[in-house]
Design goal:
Elements lengths: L1 E6 L10 H9 L2 E5 L9 H8 L4 E3 L1 H6 L5 H5 L4 E5 L7 H12 L3 E5 L4 H4 L14 E3 L10 H11 L4 E5 L1 E2 L4 E2 L2 H15 L9 E6 L7 E6 H5 L8 E5 L5 H8 L6
The protein binds S-adenosylmethionine (SAM).
Amino acid sequence: MALYFIGLGLYDEKDISLRGLEAIKRCDVVYLENYTSMLSCDVKKLEKLYGKNIILSSRELVENKAEDTILKDALSKDVAFLVIGDPMSATTHIDLRLRAEKAGIGCIVVHNASVFSAVGVTGLQLYKFGRTTSIPFQEEKWHPETPYDAIKENMNSGLHTLILLDLRPDEKKFMTVNQAIEYLLSIEDKRKEKVFSKELFCVGCARLGSLKPCIKAGNAEELLKENFGKPVHCLIVPGKLHFAEEEALELFKIHK
Ligand SMILES: C[S@@+](CC[C@H](N)C(=O)[O-])C[C@H]1O[C@@H](n2cnc3c(N)ncnc32)[C@H](O)[C@@H]1O
């Protein structure tokens, strides 16, 4: 009996590894985590290719009800926990793995591509990224400034910042690059520390790993006017650029 954490990659049902697919075929129960990212295909397509019924797991199920569902099943059966991207690139999944190990359930991890590596397609070097940050939907009166602070901290060290943007797939809601830029400009307006100005050079990305990714580089004001299309989006603020990075980014500049 084991709990398999299986990465599905970033695009559609066909991004799974052969090892991942073989593991799913062996499993009695299959869950799909559908709150930290989105595939470009319907769950039905996964069910057809993998030959299994898939149970959708909300954040609530994974974080608060796993002991009565996923972990309970894994005590007596082989269970697959499918994750879009890489299964170990979100704290909530690492936590689930620790809870499984504590309950005496053996865990097997099958890795896959993640947004954390896919951003390499921009030409920005992965080892020069600093702390990743995220922007949540602004609701009520909670307007965190941590993304602004993370950019500032990374900038001071010459490092790039990857900014993840909130999404709620069950409500068909996702944050766009444009909304993220507006949010950061609103913090700049308030703090005036010259961290995120309209002139700041940024890279907006959408649907990385898909056959139609969208990558656009330009200053914040220019990117605000662009349409990045369907989900999922993320934003990068480059730090100090190596000439090879500059050369690669030329490919994506809006105004050459
Ligand atoms: C928690 S992270 C992703 C974790 C996922 N398990 C992975 O390995 O990629 C979720 C955020 O990453 C970004 N993201 C995920 N997939 C993306 C993609 N294909 N293109 C652009 N951004 C993406 C979005 O900003 C999204 O809100």
